[in-house]
Design goal:
By secondary structure, the protein is an alpha+beta fold. The chain contains 6 helices and 15 strands.
């Protein structure tokens, strides 16, 4: 049995990482198939590479995959949790677009490049500025307060809107281009943050979501893994932690964060898919999510 440590993005595309350091590169058309071990439940993933000291069992629907104690420890020294104010590294502020009407502001360490955007499933993004951590934080707060740009978007919203993505890169970049212009003109822009000219980076092709890929939109998403369950399907797209698998019931989204803590083994030759799923409800015409079952 193998245990999944998550999905990572490299220059070559998505890669599944397993405990012990093994890696499985994922390419379009690849068969993704595994069986979930029966008995024992789902174990806590631990914190920062360490085994859970409590040996806790966590709920199947938890995307964090950690018990309360390990979740707390994992956020210690986390930039996202605002626990590091003196990080000397330079940071970048970005605007990320996930679909019509879904734009967020965020920050990432300069050394990470676009990795954070790939991990979040940003279909399109543009850099807004760069500078010290606290200047980047103040800029993020400025956009939230002055332009009402959120810093978080639920993954469920991102999935639902992928079926209505515009067909061209220019259309996909339009919202963040307009917002970029408004942002750099705001009063109160931190002097320590250097604005960057707008340049859109489009990930639709990287994710396999561009029209040219021919991939069908997803119709359902996995709600949890269960002991004895089986996954079998062809990988047609991937965005952030999500794998889009073509199955007999249509394209189903598997959030790889649900895989952590389970013992996973070979599924055999038959393409079965018998995990619990729920339908993805269509989004409204302007692209905003109408909700999920």
């Amino acid at each position: 049995m193998w245990r999944c440590a998550g999905l990572r993005w490299s220059a070559e595309g998505p890669v599944l990482v397993w405990d012990g350091g093994r890696r499985t590169a994922l390419t379009w058309g690849k068969r993704v198939a595994f069986g979930v071990a029966e008995g024992g439940g789902r174990g806590c993933a631990g914190a920062r590479g360490n085994v859970c000291p409590l040996g806790a069992v966590v709920p199947g629907r938890s995307t964090g995959g950690r018990c309360e104690e390990c979740a707390r420890l994992d956020r210690v020294h986390s930039v996202a949790a605002d626990t590091i104010a003196d990080d000397p590294r330079p940071y970048r502020v970005y605007l990320a677009w996930f679909g019509p009407g879904l734009v967020k502001v965020g920050i990432t360490a300069l050394e990470r490049g676009p990795a954070r955007l790939l991990e979040q499933g940003a279909v399109c993004f543009g850099w807004l500025g760069s500078g010290p951590l606290m200047a980047a934080r103040r800029t993020e707060e400025l956009l939230r307060a002055a332009l009402r740009v959120p810093d978080r978007i639920p993954y469920a919203h991102k999935r639902a809107v992928r079926a209505v993505l515009p067909g061209t890169a220019a259309e996909r970049a339009a919202e963040i281009e307009e917002l970029h212009g408004r942002a750099v003109g705001l009063r109160g822009w931190p002097e320590a943050l250097t604005p960057e000219p707008f340049r859109a980076v489009d990930h639709a092709g990287v994710f396999g979501l561009a029209e040219a890929s021919g991939a069908a939109p997803p119709v359902a998403e996995v709600t949890e893994l269960v002991g004895g369950g089986t996954v079998g399907g062809e990988l047609v797209a991937a965005a952030g932690p999500d794998l889009h698998l073509a199955t007999a019931r249509g394209v189903v989204v598997l959030d790889t964060r649900l895989m952590s803590g389970w013992g996973l083994g070979p599924a055999g030759d038959e393409d079965r898919f018998d995990l619990p799923v729920r339908a993805l409800r269509a989004v409204a015409a302007e692209g905003r999510q109408d909700g999920l079952f």
